[in-house]
Amino acid sequence: MGLTIGVDIGGTKIAAGVVDEEGSILETCKVPTPRTPEGVVDAIADAVRTVSTGHDIEAVGIGAAGYVDDKRATVLFAPNINWRHEALKDKVEQRVGLPVVVENDANAAAWGEYRFGAGQGHDDVVCITLGTGLGGGIIIGGKLHRGRFGVAAEFGHIRVVPDGLLCGCGSQGCWEQYASGRALVRYAKQRANATPENAQVLLGLGDGTPEGIQGKHISDAARQGDPVAIDSFRELARWAGAGLADLASLFDPSAFIVGGGVSDEGDLVLDPIRKSFRRWLVGNQWRPHAQVLAAQLGGKAGLVGAADLARQG
Amino acid sequence: MGLTIGVDIGGTKIAAGVVDEEGSILETCKVPTPRTPEGVVDAIADAVRTVSTGHDIEAVGIGAAGYVDDKRATVLFAPNINWRHEALKDKVEQRVGLPVVVENDANAAAWGEYRFGAGQGHDDVVCITLGTGLGGGIIIGGKLHRGRFGVAAEFGHIRVVPDGLLCGCGSQGCWEQYASGRALVRYAKQRANATPENAQVLLGLGDGTPEGIQGKHISDAARQGDPVAIDSFRELARWAGAGLADLASLFDPSAFIVGGGVSDEGDLVLDPIRKSFRRWLVGNQWRPHAQVLAAQLGGKAGLVGAADLARQG
Amino acid sequence: MGLTIGVDIGGTKIAAGVVDEEGSILETCKVPTPRTPEGVVDAIADAVRTVSTGHDIEAVGIGAAGYVDDKRATVLFAPNINWRHEALKDKVEQRVGLPVVVENDANAAAWGEYRFGAGQGHDDVVCITLGTGLGGGIIIGGKLHRGRFGVAAEFGHIRVVPDGLLCGCGSQGCWEQYASGRALVRYAKQRANATPENAQVLLGLGDGTPEGIQGKHISDAARQGDPVAIDSFRELARWAGAGLADLASLFDPSAFIVGGGVSDEGDLVLDPIRKSFRRWLVGNQWRPHAQVLAAQLGGKAGLVGAADLARQG
Amino acid sequence: MGLTIGVDIGGTKIAAGVVDEEGSILETCKVPTPRTPEGVVDAIADAVRTVSTGHDIEAVGIGAAGYVDDKRATVLFAPNINWRHEALKDKVEQRVGLPVVVENDANAAAWGEYRFGAGQGHDDVVCITLGTGLGGGIIIGGKLHRGRFGVAAEFGHIRVVPDGLLCGCGSQGCWEQYASGRALVRYAKQRANATPENAQVLLGLGDGTPEGIQGKHISDAARQGDPVAIDSFRELARWAGAGLADLASLFDPSAFIVGGGVSDEGDLVLDPIRKSFRRWLVGNQWRPHAQVLAAQLGGKAGLVGAADLARQG
């Protein structure tokens, strides 16, 4: 009893899982993400039915990239799927006959980490997810901070460089252009291009050209001491840590949780982020410092978090 | 009955006032701010006693610049008065025999505006105060957001220009170096120096030199059509509005309230701020927009807010 | 007698012309630019032969985008045509039987303006060309400044914004990303997207969408008072003028000449550039100011300049 | 025979020396710099007379900080001494009865290095001097590039960060705020303040506080492996090298010479500058690279250069 289903809609896969009150996943399934909005709704319903079999399910929580309205019912805008004011809650409820809650995927992941991961024991937590882009979620006083219109915590798009890099959102200088997996690869390519003599390990892991550098090469090369790879992580950390310092000035949480593929590297990336955070934290001698913690749930945070949000109703 | 006292500790004056449940000030007094920490405590106690006469007071709320701890008792650090871990609540309680609450002054002002000023009817409000510097406060779900350690909402010190202007806090590129009364004067001086032919009204209001330009000259000159004065307000607004757009991405409030001396100019400064806000608001076609409102309580917001916070306990 | 031929190799057209000692073009022809390096050489030779007929030609000057070596013989790298260490001088000389000089196209245009256009009467001139990108040339003491390796005056790629916009050159924050025709269009699109109510004339000249805005719409709309179009020119001018101020600190010429498509708008764009130049000119009270002049030869500057450089040998 | 005198006017000392045609100093004297403009003229005349004794002197060259006019006669503006349109050449000639040439001090130093120091064998050289501030000089085709009005090569005040640090010149974001001895000390103080645990050697060399850090401590600490000291040099080098890359795009010299107190550290600072230069050099695969050389004459470059410029007439 007390089971709910979490659904995580990714760009290529939709994952659904049955989750219990302790955040354990009892059953799971994955299907490819269809191309059409209607196809996605069908796929969600199918996945929910598949994992439901043999379980007594109370509710369904769906995590989706994009803006979700304040009623947690409608996706106002999704960057990947062509959803514009899509009444996702109603459509899925009609098909699966269970109460449905829709949440921004990064919010759902933040909630998962707060409840069952690195955030346990903290009431005020800010999570950032350094994936391809940069997302995140905010917990204040043990509650998910959704904002008045449901679209809070869009960390990736605060402006950190006036007149800076163009962003897919149409603006310039957005944080995710400087602190994300994509940024890391750009740093490595630029440096390998300028000083290939310092990137021999890194270049050797790929096809030998700066253009062929991929994220995993950078981690591997950094562990082997490649100067360009290490410097690329340091540059990422400079921007990530400086941004966390800003978030500390605004939110003053007791802990930051850093998740996403980049953070899988653990202290290789977290230590320089911590150092940069302290470097830029205003008033750092006069205030208690938030901890900077590695996420614990990996790619499952969103699914587990969505399921738990559905339970909370 | 139901009366509390609010105390606002400024750089030159300490103001105390008796405030009722509707936020009306029944009585008030001002004394110069002493130079020593102990002197300030004495002056607060004196002022409280002075305005108390003939009133039945329940509690005292004090607004002070600086970091106030999460128990609202100790000033961790004050920029103007030499307070370092000053147990202000205890000291004042011992002298006045009433329950005391200490709050950051910008938080108190934000609370005042939320309860009795421009924020009425909103539950999620972000206030910024464009005074000499830039401060502010955050209301989430009808509650003041103080942060885990009491030091949230330090808006003035988020970094908006990497490697930017030095700030009194020791960091560089802080928002208040670009959006504040001091920044406005700098903009006007630089422009008047470079193109005095476009600043004739402005220069005529002072001593004729760029160095002699003061804040009030800029407002007056702008109303008279002085190009440099107008351009200086526009530059201020560019930075203020862009910062509000970032805060919308993070907090997603239903309203922003803009207070402080600069905002006394009303739509002269608010309209360009609104325009800049819309210009930089990410996803502005797909999301509801927060309103950008002028503060209503002027310089009394802090006193009224501190008094009300004391009432709430 | 005293005739030379100038050849201007553009992205879509190759223009050749017979030019006399006064810089007058006696004859001209245009052919499409072939796709292959060898095709371009053939086309140049054909064009030279075509316009030569009936004239006594002394030499040929070729202006080409890219790096040209210090012997003015080899194109080290061309961005548009696939030339890498192309011995253009030798190849063309073999085909046309005349002495050939190769020059960077922006250098040739600068020389044309210096000799027969806006630069007459000046010995120290810096030209910038605001076309699709930003190029230019430098005249010092009446001589073209080519640099030790032939690749001086690459104005478009000095860094004006650290961590700024990506440039086709692989770097970030290059001046031409902020001061060029392409930048102007970007400014207009961003502003029209954010505040369409201020871009009604501008949008009406195109297809009604921000994406549909073209350069010529912006000029026309600015002349009709469209706020977004005017503001876009002002933004361009901010960056162009600030860059000229830097060049004044370095080169200290007696005049700047501003050419390229953007400058066809004359004082609409030149006046704000002059204002921004004065604004940012360091020590502007203590030093004589260079004039900021509009180019006079339009699109013919490169051809005329190349012809004259060939005459000088 | 063939002897001239060079005079170097510093903020605290005036140095004069007799220099032969090989750039050797035969005799020298130093006097404190007087406070008044007239006092400085007297002191120059006295120093010239003192070192002249027993030598047959042809001419005198004076190097002074500030703008010197195109006739090399009048100091238009000096930052340290209160000279405004000071006819220095005439005044000194009247007192010493010898032909006098006045030159900007950084230009004189550049000329000294070009003729007798690191620049020998090069015809196109750009020198930068990383002292308290950032100055420099330009040699093109074996001639000092003075500019049309005499005020070229003011490297320190090109803008490298829009809206950046305030500069003494009244502008913002000037290169010398990021690449100079003063900048180096700022970097070290900021880092030592944020992460004192990484600055133990550095702090130990001074009074133990970040405020007490001086330039020489940083060099010593860097040689001993102090992380903050090393990182401070690296930050300086990032900005210095990026600026040299811009100068290469503009001037395309065959060599850069880096002088000034900071460069006394040799490869400790030059190697990271070279690396940063290559990193930011646009088109670095397609163009010959200028060398980045350490200055050889130290603090005597200005005196020797001024003397030689006087000889050239």
Structural class of chain A: alpha/beta
Strand order of the largest sheet of chain A: 3-2-1-4-8
Largest two-chain interface: A-B, 49 and 49 residues
- Given this structure, which CATH class of the largest domain in chain A is correct? Alpha Beta
What is the CATH superfamily of the largest domain in chain A? Answer: ATPase, nucleotide binding domain
Oligomer: homotetramer
Largest sheet of chain A: 5 strands, mixed
| Overall pLDDT metric of chain A | 95
Report the end-to-end length of chain A measured between terminal Cα atoms: 16 Å
From the spread of the alpha carbons, the general shape of chain A counts as globular
Report the strand count of chain A: 13
Q: Quickly give the CATH architecture of the largest domain in chain A.
A: 2-Layer Sandwich
Proportion of residues in β-strands of chain A:
15-25%
Question: How many structural domains can be distinguished in the coordinates of chain A?
Answer: 2
Q: Work out the helicity level of chain A.
A: 25-40%
Question: What's the order of the H and E elements of chain A?
Answer: EEEHEEEEHEHEEEHHHHEHEH
Poorly predicted runs of chain A are none
CATH topology of the largest domain in chain A: Nucleotidyltransferase, domain 5
> Over the alpha carbons, how many angstroms does the gyration radius of chain A reach?
20 Å
Catalytic activity (chains A, B, C, D): D-glucose + ATP = D-glucose 6-phosphate + ADP + H(+)
Subunit structure (chains A, B, C, D): Homooligomer (possibly a homotetramer). Alternatively, it may form a heterotetramer of two glucokinase subunits with two ORF2 (AC P40182) proteins.
Organism (chains A, B, C, D): Streptomyces sparsogenes DSM 40356
GO molecular function (chains A, B, C, D): ATP binding; glucokinase activity
